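During the reporting period, our protein records have gained a structure token line. A sample record is set out beneath this paragraph:
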Amino acid sequence: MATINKTLVIRFSSIGDIILSSPLLRVLRAKFPDGQIDYVTRKEYAELVKSNQNLNCTYEFDATRGFEGLRDLKRKARGEGYDLIIDIHDSLRSKYLRSIRGPKHVAVVNKRVVERTMLVKLKKNVYKGVVSVADRYIEPLQQFGIVNDGKGLELHIPDEILFGVSSRMAKLQLNRFEKVIGLCPGARHFTKRWPAERFADLGMQCARELDAKLLIFGGGEEMDLCTTLVNHINEHAGPDRATHFCGQLSLLETAASMNFCDLIITNDSGLMHIATAMHRTIVAIFGSTVKEFGFFPYGENAVVLERPGLHCRPCSHIGRSECPEEHFRCMREIGIEEVYAAARRMIGLN
């Protein structure tokens, strides 16, 4: 087989998918220690890989530039003379980008589209086992003798970010509390969100019974949600029991902040994968999505709470804006006590 000197990995979005590509980048670097390995992603997610020590260069795609920006990227890629292109997105954009002339090899992820469609549309499970997306990304590279190293997900965080977050956390005096628990109550789609009032009551219970400090994480679009949770917990469990960082931290700053948590309780979201990459203990709550899609927490120190057996589940592989059955049983049947019990078990209290 021809020597691989230059490799391009394509994954435009989103948070979880990009983090799940970290084992791929690590095993690529191990296989080609002196090679050039570059990555293409959208500008808003580039920080997740820019400091990755297994990469030489990160190309930031500005989606606001549309086809013009994509054409410029293709021109740059053609000029680099890549030997291998690995498309782990397999979208119209990535197909266009990988179609450059010259690469000796093109490897494309198997997204299990048929299996996914059968499960969502017909509720027939024809998946051959539950395989993480992280492993699916590596599958097409078996022809090069590349296999997963089993070391899990990772994020490479610059020292200046770690120091800055440590200084910020020092002001919270976290050592006053028995436990520090992170809550990630948001998700892009409604059917992937456990009800906000339950997160609020769960946080209050953790504060009272575990003497816990609650750190609440989310994006700027979740500011109202996070503020409501903080106010509820602090009002009923005592002042300064909860603090939120919604819209205040970058993605890598969020990851560094999670390092201070004994446990993360989260929906099926990008923040769940960030917590996994930081090797946190995790309780993940799954509603309309299922583990067969490959986006479960990629690690042993995690538990997924879900409602198997519902005739309507899964209703989507990415989530929906509303419950199509109008009952939302997949989330509403997961009670506060069930999540709290799982949290206690995961931190060794049961």
